[in-house]
Amino acid sequence: MKNYILLLLIAVCFSCKNENTTIDTSVIEGHKTKLTANDIVNKSIEVSGGEKFKQSSLKFEFRDVYYQALRKNHEFLLVRILVKDNDSIFDMLSNVGFERYDNKDFVKLEDSIAKTYEASVNSVHYFSVLPYGLNDEAVNKTLLADEQIKGKDYYKVKVTFNKNGGGEDFEDVFVYWFDKQNFKMDYLAYSYNEAFGVGMRFREAYNERYINGLRFVDYNNYKTKDTEIKLEDLGKDFENNQLELLSKIELENVEVQLINN
Protein backbone atom coordinates (compact mmCIF):
# COMPACT_ATOMS: atom_id res chain seq x y z
CA MET A 1 0.00 0.00 0.00
CA LYS A 2 2.86 2.40 0.87
CA ASN A 3 4.49 1.63 -2.49
CA TYR A 4 1.22 2.31 -4.28
CA ILE A 5 0.84 5.69 -2.54
CA LEU A 6 4.47 6.55 -3.34
CA LEU A 7 3.98 5.69 -7.02
CA LEU A 8 0.76 7.71 -7.07
CA LEU A 9 2.53 10.77 -5.62
CA ILE A 10 5.34 10.46 -8.17
CA ALA A 11 2.78 10.19 -10.98
CA VAL A 12 0.92 13.27 -9.73
CA CYS A 13 4.16 15.28 -9.42
CA PHE A 14 5.27 14.20 -12.89
CA SER A 15 1.88 15.13 -14.29
CA CYS A 16 2.06 18.57 -12.67
CA LYS A 17 5.55 19.10 -14.05
CA ASN A 18 4.40 18.26 -17.56
CA GLU A 19 1.45 20.63 -17.22
CA ASN A 20 3.77 23.43 -16.18
CA THR A 21 5.89 22.95 -19.29
CA THR A 22 2.89 23.53 -21.55
CA ILE A 23 1.14 26.22 -19.52
CA ASP A 24 0.81 29.70 -21.01
CA THR A 25 3.99 31.49 -19.91
CA SER A 26 2.06 34.75 -19.72
CA VAL A 27 0.31 33.42 -16.59
CA ILE A 28 2.34 33.10 -13.41
CA GLU A 29 0.77 32.25 -10.05
CA GLY A 30 -2.63 33.17 -11.41
CA HIS A 31 -1.55 36.59 -12.67
CA LYS A 32 -0.87 37.64 -16.24
CA THR A 33 2.61 38.99 -16.85
CA LYS A 34 2.66 42.46 -18.34
CA LEU A 35 4.16 42.64 -21.80
CA THR A 36 6.90 45.19 -22.35
CA ALA A 37 7.12 47.51 -25.34
CA ASN A 38 9.84 45.25 -26.75
CA ASP A 39 7.64 42.18 -26.33
CA ILE A 40 4.78 43.81 -28.22
CA VAL A 41 6.98 45.04 -31.06
CA ASN A 42 8.68 41.65 -31.36
CA LYS A 43 5.32 39.88 -31.61
CA SER A 44 4.11 42.40 -34.20
CA ILE A 45 7.22 41.95 -36.33
CA GLU A 46 6.80 38.18 -36.08
CA VAL A 47 3.19 38.18 -37.35
CA SER A 48 4.20 40.59 -40.12
CA GLY A 49 6.94 38.41 -41.58
CA GLY A 50 9.64 38.31 -38.93
CA GLU A 51 13.06 37.12 -40.04
CA LYS A 52 11.97 37.02 -43.69
CA PHE A 53 12.44 40.79 -43.88
CA LYS A 54 16.17 40.33 -43.25
CA GLN A 55 16.52 38.15 -46.36
CA SER A 56 14.33 39.88 -48.93
CA SER A 57 14.22 41.84 -52.13
CA LEU A 58 11.21 44.17 -52.37
CA LYS A 59 9.92 46.13 -55.33
CA PHE A 60 7.01 48.54 -55.36
CA GLU A 61 5.71 51.79 -56.83
CA PHE A 62 4.60 54.79 -54.81
CA ARG A 63 3.11 57.84 -56.51
CA ASP A 64 4.57 56.84 -59.88
CA VAL A 65 8.07 56.46 -58.45
CA TYR A 66 9.83 53.08 -58.44
CA TYR A 67 11.40 51.72 -55.25
CA GLN A 68 13.48 48.67 -54.50
CA ALA A 69 14.90 47.38 -51.20
CA LEU A 70 17.49 44.66 -50.83
CA ARG A 71 18.13 43.38 -47.29
CA LYS A 72 20.50 40.59 -46.40
CA ASN A 73 21.22 40.12 -42.72
CA HIS A 74 22.66 43.46 -41.54
CA GLU A 75 23.34 44.87 -44.99
CA PHE A 76 20.80 46.87 -46.97
CA LEU A 77 20.37 48.80 -50.20
CA LEU A 78 17.38 51.13 -50.57
CA VAL A 79 16.76 52.49 -54.06
CA ARG A 80 14.49 55.16 -55.56
CA ILE A 81 14.27 55.60 -59.33
CA LEU A 82 12.73 58.72 -60.86
CA VAL A 83 12.12 58.53 -64.60
CA LYS A 84 11.53 61.65 -66.70
CA ASP A 85 11.56 61.56 -70.47
CA ASN A 86 14.68 59.56 -71.34
CA ASP A 87 16.51 60.29 -68.10
CA SER A 88 16.58 58.17 -64.93
CA ILE A 89 17.71 59.44 -61.54
CA PHE A 90 18.92 56.72 -59.16
CA ASP A 91 19.01 57.51 -55.43
CA MET A 92 20.70 54.76 -53.42
CA LEU A 93 21.02 54.50 -49.66
CA SER A 94 23.09 51.68 -48.17
CA ASN A 95 25.30 50.83 -45.21
CA VAL A 96 28.01 52.82 -46.98
CA GLY A 97 25.93 55.99 -47.33
CA PHE A 98 23.87 57.90 -49.90
CA GLU A 99 24.67 58.28 -53.61
CA ARG A 100 22.83 59.75 -56.59
CA TYR A 101 23.33 58.84 -60.24
CA ASP A 102 21.98 60.55 -63.35
CA ASN A 103 21.61 57.59 -65.67
CA LYS A 104 25.08 56.05 -65.16
CA ASP A 105 26.87 59.21 -64.07
CA PHE A 106 27.62 59.86 -60.41
CA VAL A 107 26.19 63.18 -59.16
CA LYS A 108 28.14 65.06 -56.50
CA LEU A 109 25.78 66.80 -54.10
CA GLU A 110 26.17 69.33 -51.32
CA ASP A 111 25.92 67.61 -47.94
CA SER A 112 22.71 69.42 -47.00
CA ILE A 113 20.99 68.41 -50.25
CA ALA A 114 22.24 64.84 -50.01
CA LYS A 115 20.83 64.54 -46.49
CA THR A 116 17.44 65.79 -47.70
CA TYR A 117 17.31 63.20 -50.48
CA GLU A 118 18.55 60.49 -48.10
CA ALA A 119 15.79 61.27 -45.60
CA SER A 120 13.18 61.21 -48.37
CA VAL A 121 14.29 57.80 -49.65
CA ASN A 122 14.58 56.35 -46.17
CA SER A 123 11.13 57.62 -45.16
CA VAL A 124 9.24 55.76 -47.89
CA HIS A 125 11.13 52.53 -47.30
CA TYR A 126 10.71 52.91 -43.53
CA PHE A 127 6.92 53.15 -43.71
CA SER A 128 6.64 50.40 -46.33
CA VAL A 129 7.79 47.60 -44.00
CA LEU A 130 6.58 48.73 -40.57
CA PRO A 131 6.78 47.42 -37.87
CA TYR A 132 10.06 45.97 -39.15
CA GLY A 133 12.78 48.45 -38.23
CA LEU A 134 11.44 49.22 -34.77
CA ASN A 135 14.21 47.14 -33.21
CA ASP A 136 17.05 49.19 -34.69
CA GLU A 137 19.73 50.21 -32.20
CA ALA A 138 18.79 53.90 -32.34
CA VAL A 139 15.15 53.21 -31.43
CA ASN A 140 13.79 53.86 -27.93
CA LYS A 141 10.40 52.31 -27.07
CA THR A 142 8.05 53.28 -24.24
CA LEU A 143 4.80 51.50 -23.39
CA LEU A 144 1.88 53.91 -22.96
CA ALA A 145 -1.59 53.22 -21.53
CA ASP A 146 -3.81 50.85 -23.51
CA GLU A 147 -6.45 52.43 -25.72
CA GLN A 148 -9.63 51.41 -27.51
CA ILE A 149 -10.31 52.49 -31.09
CA LYS A 150 -13.42 51.45 -33.00
CA GLY A 151 -14.28 48.81 -30.43
CA LYS A 152 -10.84 47.15 -30.48
CA ASP A 153 -8.30 47.14 -27.66
CA TYR A 154 -4.79 48.30 -28.49
CA TYR A 155 -1.35 48.36 -26.96
CA LYS A 156 0.19 51.79 -27.50
CA VAL A 157 3.94 52.21 -27.90
CA LYS A 158 5.85 55.49 -28.18
CA VAL A 159 9.07 55.55 -30.22
CA THR A 160 11.88 58.10 -30.15
CA PHE A 161 15.35 57.98 -31.68
CA ASN A 162 18.89 58.54 -30.51
CA LYS A 163 20.77 61.33 -32.24
CA ASN A 164 23.58 58.89 -33.00
CA GLY A 165 22.21 56.53 -35.64
CA GLY A 166 18.73 58.03 -35.66
CA GLY A 167 19.09 59.66 -39.06
CA GLU A 168 18.38 63.18 -40.22
CA ASP A 169 14.92 63.15 -38.58
CA PHE A 170 15.99 61.72 -35.22
CA GLU A 171 13.85 64.31 -33.39
CA ASP A 172 10.63 62.89 -34.85
CA VAL A 173 8.37 61.06 -32.40
CA PHE A 174 6.10 58.15 -33.29
CA VAL A 175 3.21 56.37 -31.57
CA TYR A 176 2.02 52.92 -32.71
CA TRP A 177 -1.21 51.10 -31.92
CA PHE A 178 -1.00 47.27 -31.88
CA ASP A 179 -4.11 45.06 -31.81
CA LYS A 180 -4.11 43.24 -28.45
CA GLN A 181 -5.53 40.09 -30.06
CA ASN A 182 -3.19 39.57 -33.02
CA PHE A 183 -0.44 42.19 -32.43
CA LYS A 184 -0.85 43.68 -35.91
CA MET A 185 -0.16 47.40 -36.21
CA ASP A 186 -3.37 49.15 -37.26
CA TYR A 187 -2.58 52.81 -36.55
CA LEU A 188 0.38 55.11 -36.15
CA ALA A 189 0.97 58.79 -35.50
CA TYR A 190 4.07 60.93 -35.76
CA SER A 191 5.28 64.46 -35.28
CA TYR A 192 7.74 66.16 -37.60
CA ASN A 193 9.86 69.28 -37.65
CA GLU A 194 10.99 69.94 -41.19
CA ALA A 195 12.11 72.93 -43.23
CA PHE A 196 8.61 73.11 -44.74
CA GLY A 197 6.90 73.17 -41.34
CA VAL A 198 6.00 71.51 -38.07
CA GLY A 199 3.07 69.20 -37.59
CA MET A 200 1.57 65.81 -36.85
CA ARG A 201 0.01 63.01 -38.87
CA PHE A 202 -2.19 60.05 -38.01
CA ARG A 203 -2.39 56.98 -40.26
CA GLU A 204 -5.00 54.26 -40.45
CA ALA A 205 -3.89 50.98 -42.05
CA TYR A 206 -6.11 49.28 -44.63
CA ASN A 207 -5.83 46.90 -47.60
CA GLU A 208 -3.77 44.35 -45.68
CA ARG A 209 -2.13 41.68 -47.85
CA TYR A 210 0.61 39.13 -47.40
CA ILE A 211 3.08 38.69 -50.26
CA ASN A 212 5.51 35.80 -49.94
CA GLY A 213 4.94 35.83 -46.19
CA LEU A 214 5.46 39.59 -45.66
CA ARG A 215 2.62 41.86 -44.53
CA PHE A 216 1.92 45.09 -46.40
CA VAL A 217 -0.74 47.73 -45.81
CA ASP A 218 -1.82 51.05 -47.27
CA TYR A 219 -2.75 54.04 -45.13
CA ASN A 220 -5.35 56.76 -44.86
CA ASN A 221 -3.25 59.78 -43.91
CA TYR A 222 -4.93 62.30 -41.59
CA LYS A 223 -4.03 65.73 -40.27
CA THR A 224 -5.32 67.76 -37.33
CA LYS A 225 -6.14 71.44 -37.12
CA ASP A 226 -5.66 71.41 -33.35
CA THR A 227 -1.99 72.27 -32.89
CA GLU A 228 -2.34 72.05 -29.11
CA ILE A 229 -3.29 68.37 -29.04
CA LYS A 230 -0.71 65.88 -27.85
CA LEU A 231 0.60 63.31 -30.31
CA GLU A 232 -0.49 60.49 -27.97
CA ASP A 233 -4.10 61.76 -28.11
CA LEU A 234 -4.54 61.62 -31.89
CA GLY A 235 -6.18 58.21 -31.57
CA LYS A 236 -8.97 59.81 -29.51
CA ASP A 237 -9.42 62.54 -32.11
CA PHE A 238 -9.64 59.88 -34.82
CA GLU A 239 -12.22 57.98 -32.76
CA ASN A 240 -14.26 61.20 -32.45
CA ASN A 241 -14.00 62.00 -36.21
CA GLN A 242 -12.02 65.16 -35.53
CA LEU A 243 -9.21 64.48 -38.02
CA GLU A 244 -9.19 65.50 -41.68
CA LEU A 245 -8.22 63.03 -44.40
CA LEU A 246 -5.22 64.52 -46.18
CA SER A 247 -4.09 61.78 -48.57
CA LYS A 248 -3.71 58.06 -49.16
CA ILE A 249 -0.43 56.18 -48.88
CA GLU A 250 -0.71 53.31 -51.37
CA LEU A 251 1.99 50.87 -52.44
CA GLU A 252 1.36 49.47 -55.91
CA ASN A 253 2.74 46.47 -57.81
CA VAL A 254 4.45 45.06 -54.73
CA GLU A 255 6.81 42.16 -55.42
CA VAL A 256 8.71 40.11 -52.86
CA GLN A 257 11.57 37.71 -53.42
CA LEU A 258 13.06 35.88 -50.46
CA ILE A 259 16.83 35.46 -50.53
CA ASN A 260 18.66 32.40 -49.25
CA ASN A 261 21.72 32.81 -47.02
* Series of secondary-structure elements, N-terminal to C-terminal: HEEHEEEEEEHEEEEEEHEE
Q: Count structural domains.
A: 1
CATH architecture: Clam
Quaternary form = single chain
Low-confidence stretches are 1-31
What's the end-to-end separation, in Å?
A: 61 Å
What strand order characterises the main sheet? Answer: 8-7-6-5-4-3-16
Write down the CATH class. Mainly Beta
Give the amount of beta strand, in percent. Answer: over 45%
Binned, the helix content reads 10-25%
Mean pLDDT: 85
Count of strand segments: 16
Structural class: alpha+beta
Rounded to an integer in angstroms, the radius of gyration calculated over CA atoms is 23 Å
Envelope shape: globular
Instruction: Write down the CATH topology.
Output: outer membrane lipoprotein receptor (LolB), chain A
User: How many H/I helical runs?
Assistant: 4
